[in-house]
Amino acid sequence: MSPVLGVTSNYKRQIRFVDTLAIVILNYNGQPFLAKFLPTVLANTDGHPVYVADGASTDESVSFVRANFPEVRLIELPYNDGYAGGYNMALERVRTQYGGATYYVLPNSDIEVTPGWLSPVLTLLKNNPKIAACQPKIRSYDQRELLEHAGAAGGFVDWLGYIFCRGRVFATFETDHGQYDDSRQVFWATGACLFMRADVFHQTGGFDSSFFAHMEEIDWCWRIQRLGYEVWACGQSTVFHVGGGTLHKSNPKKTYLNYRNSLFMLYKNWPADGWLWPKILLRLVLDGLSSLLFLKVGEWSDVGAILQAHFAFYKRLPILHQERKRLQQQQTTEVKLFPRSIVWQYFAEGKKTFKEIYGV
């Protein structure tokens, strides 16, 4: 039996999805990446349509795609609303204007796909209707034997809302020697190359657009698991990711979004067990300690970004509280987080790899 869904009021149940996949690439001022990576995507579509959804770029992205890739379905969005809002608009257009799809895959514009990247993931999705989100293995484009920062081989969340991956824990990146070639259930699948069931995406209201960018896919994965769905990583599919194509890791805005959105996600989704505020206060302390690492290397703007992130979280608490109540009313399944602190495991106990931390 399919899990019960929290259905948004504007979702039209009579929409009938065709049995296919839509490959949808969100772009903002990424014309060089489109020139470099879009040909590889088009060479490995297995006959599925490719969309480029442009978020009001100010470079030559739109004219470039129109002139060089007439087979691409170009969606011009009215403004740049980040990853979350941009994909919400784009996938609604795919659904209403192009007839929709059974599955979506959302590769970043700086993703290099490989031959056969689609088939293993689609097979996994088709064989298990409870899987609503999935990712391939993500390796670094520049250091091709290393698993990459944005998702690696599938992600997890610890009891304080900090994230880590199979193959990447904080600044430790494992060499890929086949240790993650299996397919298994994980907590979150990366937005760098996210496969999803289209009906689940639309029925759950898509991404939380208030996130703008970063962790919106983790928040969505958490929400769909609360409705009884599963998230998986497929080790038989591999793509390569440049990373930081739109917002470089050195940009303080990235620090701000990561810290703020982590708190948004934790507050919205944490179980109703009475321990929420003690965890929030502990996060405040740990986030403050992490700012000392930025101070150590003279990155004062990142320290300011962490402070701004906390103030933004407190300012949004009334809205987050309403979201929390709504999600609790819809929940059908308890979701388990990693029961220990990844910060303590990594920095105090010196456990640097997923196997050392998770045991499998």
UniProtKB/TrEMBL annotation:
MF terms in GO: glycosyltransferase activity
Keywords: Glycosyltransferase, Transferase
InterPro entries xrefs: Glyco_trans_2-like, Nucleotide-diphossugar_trans
Keyword Transferase found: yes
Keyword Magnesium part of the UniProt annotation: no
Alphabetized Pfam families for the sequence: Glycos_transf_2
Domain Glycosyltransferase 2-like: 23-172
Gene3D superfamilies referenced in this protein's UniProt entry, alphabetically: Spore Coat Polysaccharide Biosynthesis Protein SpsA, Chain A
PANTHER family: GALACTOFURANOSYLTRANSFERASE GLFT2, RHAMNOSYLTRANSFERASE WBBL
Family: Belongs to the glycosyltransferase 2 family.
Name assigned to this protein: Glycosyltransferase 2-like domain-containing protein
Annotated organism of origin: Spirosoma endophyticum
